[in-house]
Design a protein that fits this description.
Helix content: 25-40%
Shape: globular
Distance between the termini: 57 Å
Largest sheet: 8 strands, mixed
Number of strands: 10
Strand content: 5-15%
Low-confidence stretches: 1-46
């Protein structure tokens, strides 16, 4: 644990001279001026400091560690993630492209990572993201529908916007300009396997099978979610199968494939940011007769749950200690009443189908139906992200030394007490009841066939 005061210097007794600040310093001076505390920056203690050194000190990361930032897919719910990323950059003291060593992303996480590669801060990315979401989820026609007449949306606006934002730069060119290694996921329908678009700079050698492809092509490949958008030739969204959360793929790529020799498991910190997990709790009495048409219900259920379970298994694997020495820091919120009630009770804007005026007034039925393309819930997801960021870094602890703060402050994995489960991910089960019922022959024989 460290005190972040190292990067925010108290006012000197004598007026300090003005110096030209680096981009990271300008970033910090701006966010501090807008925040709770204001400080002066001095040349000897801050401007000459390396943003990587400052970020590692503020985040409680050993100076020798490399840092991977991995971001899940989730459509418009990425606005939730951006609130966490903004708070992370605020605490670090500079945009993450100045202190991370690698970015990884799937779908909306891939879009955010792509903008990081273009040297955009989380605040700047949010501005682009607002435009992307408002333009991307454009109905293909009034008859378009995910189930009956897919795909629901057209990518014309997306392609135009990505070209305007990132241009025609290759992965290798962006790797050279930022120093950031990268991994993006997409499902190759023709090959029947996941494709990892990577680029790793080893100094005398750049590794990555697809290092010379255009970033905007990769962005379209990783976001082309089936039924929402048409495939990008042979590619669909990387989260279609097991890689909606790309963190395990990112770690393996860094340690054993294109990044081998550059990254070491005992000197590696991984920030894994979720986009809000939709948990579908179905009571045992409802499983035989779910709401709506059975085929549609189960189709949606399987598509969503397969991705969610794969994400949880990846996190469980990394938390298990199988990769000894790895410093994983996972941040995720399950979208249900129990988890949301742990957050600050922020006010929410009126929405057509939600009458609640604050976060704690939301119900499970409302939270579990926040679809990745439901832009009417965009403002709600942003508020949930802001509340989660406040849960991680509460303003009430800001003046305390870091070692005395009880909240997470991005210093370690966000776990529930005495557990390997996320602090904001709800566990709901009935172990005693299951043990009793499944141990009874009479109960088993009474169940419908």
């Amino acid at each position: 644990m460290v005190d972040r005061s190292a990067s925010i210097i108290s006012p000197a007794k004598k007026p300090a001279k003005r110096y030209r600040l680096s981009s990271g310093s300008r970033f910090l001076s701006t966010i501090v001026a807008r925040g709770i505390r204001k400080r002066y920056l001095t040349l000897d203690k801050f401007v000459m400091a390396n943003p990587k050194e400052i970020a590692r000190k503020n985040l409680g990361i050993p100076a020798t560690n490399k840092i991977i930032l991995s971001i899940d897919g989730g459509g418009m719910r990425g606005i939730f993630t951006l609130q966490i990323l903004k708070k992370l950059e605020w605490l670090a003291g500079s945009p993450c492209y100045e202190w991370c060593d690698m970015v990884a992303g799937t779908s909306t996480g891939g879009l955010i990572s792509s903008l990081i590669l273009n040297k955009k801060s989380a605040v700047e990315i949010e501005e682009y993201y607002n435009t992307l979401v408002s333009k991307v989820f454009t109905k293909r026609s009034w008859l378009a529908n995910r189930i009956y007449n897919p795909p629901a949306y057209d990518k014309e606006h997306f392609r135009k916007l990505t070209q305007d934002i990132v241009g025609d730069r290759t992965l290798k060119e962006l790797n050279a300009s930022t120093g950031l290694d990268m991994l993006f996921t997409a499902k190759d329908l023709a090959a029947g396997e996941e494709t990892f678009f990577t680029c790793f700079d080893h100094g005398d050698l750049v590794k990555g099978t697809y290092q010379n492809v255009l970033l905007r092509a990769v962005m379209e490949a990783t976001m082309s979610a089936p039924t929402y958008f048409s495939p990008f030739e042979r590619f669909v969204d990387g989260g279609t199968t097991t890689f909606n959360n790309p963190v395990l793929a990112a770690v393996l790529e860094a340690l054993h494939y294109d990044g081998k020799g550059k990254y070491r498991q005992h000197e590696l910190t991984v920030y894994s940011l979720g986009t809000g997990a939709v948990l579908r709790f179905i009571e045992p009495s409802e499983t035989k007769n779910p709401k709506g048409l059975d085929s549609i219900f189960w189709l949606k259920y399987v598509m969503a749950e397969a991705s969610k379970d794969a994400s949880e298994m990846q996190i469980d694997t990394l938390r298990s200690g199988l990769i000894e020495g790895l410093d994983l820091r996972r941040y995720q919120l399950s979208l249900d009443e129990a988890a949301v009630h742990k957050l600050p009770n922020l006010p929410i804007k009126p929405m057509p189908d939600i009458t609640a005026s604050t976060l704690h007034g939301l119900k499970d039925d409302q939270l579990k139906n926040i679809d990745m393309a439901d832009v009417s819930k965009f403002a709600l997801m942003k508020t949930l992200g802001e509340a989660t960021a406040e849960f991680i870094c509460p303003a009430t602890e800001l003046e305390l030394p870091m070692e005395t703060r009880s909240a997470n402050w991005f210093q370690k994995d966000l776990l529930a007490p005495n557990s390997k489960r996320g602090a904001l991910v709800t566990a709901r089960g009935d172990i005693p009841g299951i043990q009793n019922r499944l141990s009874s022959a009479k109960w088993i024989d009474q169940q419908p066939t």
